[in-house]
């Protein structure tokens, strides 16, 4: 495996940890929301995130790397904090949405970090990462609209 492949694999494995955080975050949102429409949307986002993870893992595999199925330590800490917070505040829809917005903003940072290495990534992988980033950005915007409606 070339050094460039190793760097590409590292970048994608790190990105996939954030995508896996996204999956776990929306699974948590499904569990705590009381709004059926929100629950359905969060389930759609879980499926979308699983597809993103599969795409990233496929790219990693094509470069000779091992799939990444773990999450970040920061994501685990954040989900733990949200559990504690919901114990004291209840499952407030606005707080759930705010947490999801925070997660999508965090995902944007992960996509931007990955794209800082786009000169090391194959063009088709850069295209995949950019497409996922745009989808995450659209999700963030929809969540902001949901937050405004919850006010």
Automatic annotation (TrEMBL):
Official protein name in the record: DUF2383 domain-containing protein
Record-annotated DUF2383 domain positions: 9-116
